[in-house]
Fold:
Amino acid sequence: MQKLLENLNLEQLAAVTLPAQSALILAGAGSGKTRVLTTRIAWLLKTGQISTQGVLAVTFTNKAAREMTARLSGMISANTRGMWIGTFHGLCNRLLRAHYHDAALPQSFQILDSQDQLSSIRRLLRANNVDDEQYPPRALAYYINNAKERGLRAVNVEAFDEHEQRMVELYGLYEEQCQREGVVDFAELLLRSYELLSRNVLLREHYQARFRHILVDEFQDTNDLQYQWLRLMAGGGAVVFAVGDDDQSIYAFRGANVGNMTAFQRDFQVQNLIRLEQNYRSHGNILEAANALIANNSRRLGKNLRTEAGHGEPVRVFEATSDLNEAQYLVEEAKSLVAEGRLRSEIAILYRSNAQSRVIEHALFSAGIPYRVYGGLRFFERAEIKHAMAYLQLMDNPHNDSAFLRVVNFPTRGIGARSLEQLQNMARQHDVSLYAAIPYMSGKAGTSLAAFVRLVEGARFETQQMSLPEMVKMVIERSGLIAHYQKEKEGADRIENLGELVNAALAFLHMEGIPQDMPALYASQVFQGTPILPTESGVEVLEGEPVVEMTPLVAFLTHASLEAGESQAQEGQDALQLMTVHAAKGLEFDAVFITGLEEGLFPHENSTQEVDGLEEERRLMYVAITRAKQRLYLSCSQTRMLHGRTKYNIQSRFLDELPEGILKWITPKKQVYWSGSTSSGASHAFVVPAVAPLAATRSTGGATWRIGEAIFHKKFGDGVIVSLEGEGAQVRAHINFGREGMKLLDLSIAKLERLA
DNA sequence: GTTCCACGCGTTTTT
DNA sequence: CGCGTGGAAC
Structure:
């Protein structure tokens, strides 16, 4: 016990050893959040306050769940497998698998990822002759997910106009389609298990009695449905230990509701609020920057990070003349950091949006510096992998219409759109799956479809005794996928990925502790993440919880949907880390570059229109800053190519919000030409590029304008002329309108007033 | 059924 | 500017 608790600071110790009452832990960046969470569980177990069966720990990412499990096994001797540790979606999946019957789902229901959901919706719209201009699939998906996250079924949604009424109808049809096909989307996992527990008293009471301690990571990211799910699960008087940081809430745009933190304090009568403010990650100047920045946000729960690490180096600020120039600076700086002996993997280049990475990648590539870009397509999201997985889905259940449609003509086998249209009519007519409707088909379409049936049945027969990796190998060959990509010019990577899928299957068995030679179609008592047969004394099943029988194949399919896998990138090599700020959350690096610190980009222009959008952007910047351990670089650029146009941006307000004393300007700090305040009261400064053009003048319509001159425009307000171009009637000026941004105005049209 | 070009669109995205 | 989608032509 002594060993378990040693080296915890007082705040952490207090959190770990809190009495059995619900608590909220405000854990600042780098304050040892995961450590507190895992030590808390270990402490509860070691003090005998709970058995492994009584623990429910929820995270948002698989990675976090894995890390928690791994750390916990290092702390306790008991098997972590008895505990329910996982993501919201993973745990809900587990509930639904165990109680599929009560949840009105087929035993081997399949999970749609966002891509699958979208194609499912597209198919629905086509089948119902809906104009997808008027009802874009993406918008409908958003609408449906949003409704589900508010706990609303189609029958419960209130439509405010005709258009929405139609959306609701389509939502209803989508529900029917999913139910018919035995598939659930991500939001459905949550909602369905919520409904399962709220309707089924016995089940609810069973789980409420079982889980006496519920621990939640990244609580600020919970959405409304997840919060209600927690309330339901904890309804029997469980102790909820919620860890989160309102300052790091950056997923409001996806439905995360920081308000859940205050709601939690109210609903659970939280007496214990502990702040973890001791930071073990960053040097003082970096923390000071973070603290000063976030202080500009209102409605915070309040928190100030401190460190014992000393001030460290100043925060370096660089103003580039162009995005290219910015990228070159990054390259040079990164080079010298590596020359100093730093690992490339300890250097991160962060940006607000993915579009910014291209210039940087190009510069790094030219300089021959290894780098790795995070984000983009992940392994199980790749088209060739999706195709292979669809064939595997058909091995489990050929009546899966979406899997069927995905590969019935891929590789092409002469089954075109009109054949499928006929088939769909036939299926509707006989109320059966597409696969089952094939025997009703005649003519040429019937022949080629029958050939497909023979392919599927043949593969199913042959793979009957095969292990999962053998089955995967067999399917990617027999389906013709390999041959197809061999014919393609750029198919080599895809073939390589398909080969990688065989390895992924092998690795999966290993991870789950499933014997490598167990037939893929053998219904074993394994459960994803947690076999229910871990002890020597035999199968360990709590009363009221059925043994989940699942084939290795279905377990693998589930795994692929719930965990998209790492992004494909060259492994093994020490490489610079490139990612969006969102993707960097939870990570840390010796040196961090935050790029593109310009108004319109970071904060992003779209965010300023959303309620509290600016505050979310600021939290995003806060997250970015607090990733850095020793060295932090901030950069912005005067010009930037965006969508094929050159944009003239002004420096981000976030730069202004940092204390001057901790900054070191690599380029001269901008000269402030004029400052004042807008009608809204926000004070700001007008600035011109550090490399100020000469006091050039241009005349038009009898007036002469000078660079640097302060002017007033009826629509944009006060501004400063930054550059002038053209002659006579063609004179145009770049004018910095402060918060309104940089505008290019034609001076023969725009009416400017001269300010004294 | 396949291929090619024109057009449009371009924040972030744990599951 | 560069990509992915979708329509029209081979």
The two ends of chain A are 73 Å apart (CA to CA). Residues 290 and 622 of chain A are 6 Å apart (CA to CA). Confidence is low (pLDDT under 50) at residues 528-540, 673-685, 687-694 of chain A. The first helix of chain A runs from residue 2 to 5.
